[in-house]
Design goal:
alpha+beta; 9-stranded mixed β-sheet; binds (2S)-amino(hydroxy)ethanoic acid
């Protein structure tokens, strides 16, 4: 195999260095948005950007931008990047690899080809995972497209009880200035990310070219009944939210299973109150995350889930609160940019397979204002959102070369 534009060892050491900020166990990362670890990671990223000879800027929400200024300052920018926050705990690669890839790609392009025609930018986005604030999803990219509601920073409260506005203040940012992060100068956004699924490994491709990103909806379901004694209350006299939750959880998972691929449904978080062995609970709250890249299948899946939730709550006489925390229809990548990436892979001698993303990504938000596309890199055993997440440095190097070559096509031709 020909030598890659980027030395895999450099990628490996950058991944390891970034993973020190928020290290969790041997290989995990817990880097929640605006935490001290997160601040340290963004500072590290900014230092790398400056070392690469790029012009560095921090915006009002905390995204960090690195520019390789183009000759034509009026032309819309070509941007690449991903997010620096993690699941709690997650792995070292989710988001982080895309941030590192952006910096390395721009640095390489600068050295090989000098100034581009259009400005190239690498961005380290503040937040994608909603792992600290349950409904913050895509905080950084939403600020860029102007989709953060004015009251959100004060309304959103993290699992730690801190509001978003307070968390931003702790990181030296003023939530009142979020609107200043909005941009209208992005023409194309290309995000490199680990696949997080099993398909590239199974089909034996190091790299994937993403054609579409799944749609999803995330709910918080809260069922309230009557707390009572576990020994003295006859089964037919109970208003038991746990019995309702069990029925709903089993039902939604089964529905997704029966509807078949590519739809998926997950219940990943449950809160029981009072959570005692001998007490019928008063309240059970749980999340439902339902997804499909097929618009009609997503609608059908969501309709079935909602009907089941209502029916069980009514039949069991439980008070129901059904909150939608995040909702996004599937997004198609821009066909021309997808073709540019496929051609870049061919030029780099990197076998690449076209595919759909089952994870959601900042690129979906950017699609509101720009042409978007994504490059995936193989995940070992398809594992992600786990400290066991791993991507080989050689695969990452192949993906970053494809990214750099695609950015070259997009930004250097007149
Ligand atoms: O849930 C997702 O797909 C994303 O990784 N946060
Ligand atoms: Mn991610
Ligand atoms: Mn993720």
């Amino acid at each position: 195999m020909a030598a890659r534009w980027i030395d895999p060892e450099r990628i490996e050491s950058a991944i390891a260095a970034l993973a020190e900020h928020g290290a969790h166990g041997e290989t995990g990362v817990a880097r929640l948005v605006y935490s001290p670890e997160w601040v340290a990671a963004q500072d590290q990223v900014a230092a790398w950007m400056a070392e690469a000879g790029l012009r560095v800027e921090r915006d009002a929400v905390g995204n960090i931008w690195a520019y390789l200024d183009g000759r034509d300052r009026e032309a819309a920018m070509v941007v690449t990047g991903s997010h620096v926050d993690s699941q709690n705990p997650g792995g070292r690669f989710d988001g982080a690899l895309g941030v590192i890839a952006g910096i390395m790609a721009l640095s390489e392009l600068r050295e090989r080809f000098g100034q581009p025609e259009r400005t190239l930018a690498a961005v380290s986005l503040v937040e994608e995972e909603a792992s600290r604030f349950p409904t913050a999803n895509f905080w950084g990219s939403r600020a860029i497209i102007g989709r953060i509601a004015a009251e959100e920073p004060k309304r959103l409260r993290g699992y730690d009880g801190v509001t978003m506005a307070e968390a931003m203040r702790d990181a030296g940012l003023d939530a009142a200035r979020i609107p200043e992060a909005k941009r209208e100068d992005i023409g194309t956004f290309v995000e490199l990310h680990i696949e997080q699924g099993p398909f590239l490994e199974r089909e034996n491709f190091p790299v994937g070219v993403v054609e579409a990103i799944t749609g999803y909806r995330q709910y918080l379901v809260t069922l309230e009944g009557a707390a009572n004694h576990a020994g003295t209350t006859p089964m037919d006299m109970r208003r038991d939210p746990m019995a309702g939750a069990a029925e709903i959880i089993g039902g939604v998972v089964d529905t997704a299973h029966r509807m078949g691929r590519p739809c998926v449904t997950t219940v990943g978080r449950v809160n029981v109150s009072p959570n005692e062995r001998a007490v019928i609970p008063r309240q059970v709250a749980f999340t439902v995350d339902a997804r499909s890249p097929l618009p009609e299948q997503r609608e059908a899946l969501l309709a079935r889930h909602e009907a089941l939730i209502q029916e069980v709550a009514e039949r069991r006489d439980l008070r129901l609160n059904l909150r939608v925390d995040s909702d996004r229809e599937p997004v198609r990548c821009d066909p021309e940019t997808v073709a540019v990436i496929a051609a870049a892979a061919e030029a780099a001698g990197v076998p690449a397979m076209t595919m759909t993303s089952g994870a959601v990504h900042d690129a979906m938000q950017m699609a509101e204002i720009a042409r978007i596309a994504m490059i995936f890199v193989r995940s070992r055993s398809g594992i992600s959102h786990s400290p066991d997440e791993f991507t080989a440095a050689e695969d990452a190097a192949a993906g970053i070369e494809v990214l750099a070559r695609a950015l070259h096509t997009l930004a250097y031709r007149p």
